Amino acid sequence: MRLSFASLALVFLLLLTTQTVFTRADDKPASPLSQAHAHNDYLHDRPLYDALDHGFNSVEADVFLVGDKLLVGHTLGETTPDRTLAALYLDPLRQRVRSGGGQVQPGGGPFRLFIDIKSSAEPTYAALTTLLASYSDMLSQVQDDKFQTCAINVVISGNRPQATMAAEKKRFAGIDGRLSDLNSDVASHLIPVISDNWKSHFQWRGAGEIPAEEKQKLRQWVRQAHADGRQIRFWGTPDTPPMWRVLQDSGVDMINTDDLPGLEKFLRDNRSNH
Fold first, then answer.
1. For the whole model, what pTM was predicted?
2. 3-state secondary structure of 21
3. Burial grade of 226 (CB within 10 A; 0-12, 13-18, 19 or more)
4. Of 127, 131, 200, 221, which residue is least crowded by CB atoms under 10 Å?
């Protein structure tokens, strides 16, 4: 059966509409939420896009070096050849920056892309550096110890080749530090973020009131990180409104979550108070 020109035009319009719905949930982008961080973002139905639609300004992807490809997945067994870091994150982010006036989330400042290296640190980072260089037009970078801000700040977590990164003259990423780095005299562009496991340092699990001494400890760590020009986050935090409230009130820069709509609603409902 041959289709008329009008029928073909209608089919094309339907396909275009379907793609638009897939890549953006509505006609109006969500205003950015600077504290919202999508933990294990790649596990959502639409990696990156779901987080962006909920206004998140920070996402995290686990990567494995398989051959010469950087594949995204929680475990090596969950990776597939088509789910590359470039395809799931770097290419769509570049498109977003180019169509968004030089920003991922208009009005949201630099977007944070955490890359959690799961395979061997050195060879994976070497491949990653080569890949990131081809996206240098949108990435914040360090050249001869001078930091240049751009649309996206890349942070390397997991297996971090710290000595190699510290020695680089040109670098497209910073290191995800730990609480042991709080008093470090290392430049903030090398360790821009302090991250650690909540359950290793706090007994409170997000129900009821946080003990006063733990609240004081948290706020002291936040103050110290900020005084050194670093941001701070914790993983392993329960996805509960009392936990989110404590993190928000204490000035934690990134609130880790797997519950994108839940955290979005909480932050928007409580935005007027902060």
1. 0.88
2. helix
3. middle
4. 200
